[in-house]
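Re: that chain you flagged

S.,

Sorry for the slow reply, it's been a week of failed gels. I finally had a moment to sit down with the sequence you sent. For the record, here it is as I used it:
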Amino acid sequence: METSANNGANPLLGTWHLVRWDINYSDGRPPSLPYGEGATGMILYSADGHMSACIARAGRSKLSSDSVRSAPVPERLAAFESYFQYAGPYEIRGAPGQQVVAHTVTQSLNPNFVGTSQVRNMAFSEDGRQLTLSASDSVPGTTVARHHRLVWRRGT
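Prediction finished late last night. Pasting the structure tokens below so you have them in one place:
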């Protein structure tokens, strides 16, 4: 069963704020927090079927220049490495209780994300105010599996 993003039963609609992003690994290493404790983020799902997500490391340093274009290269690299963003259309797939959301990336800070489909398992708290998006992949260049879990709370 597929659910259109503009269906009245769409539980994703609105703004969600990041609570936590953690990654667990199959090789027994400790879980990691890609953007550290206190990371901030927002994901928005619109009724017309588009989404936008961004996540930032807490305490990001300001640039020494008013323009990112004239900031020193190390500062620009630090800004890039401490921020994650992508956007595009989305679609909910599957039966209730076993649904995934597929994000078709059309814009991204990371140009390698553009043109990809980012499929996330989705689960809601009983009161519907918390959303967990998760996905598994492998650590690049290895056979080590990792499981990403992003917990969001509904914002106002």
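What I noticed first: The chain is about 5% helix and 45% strand.

Talk soon,
D.
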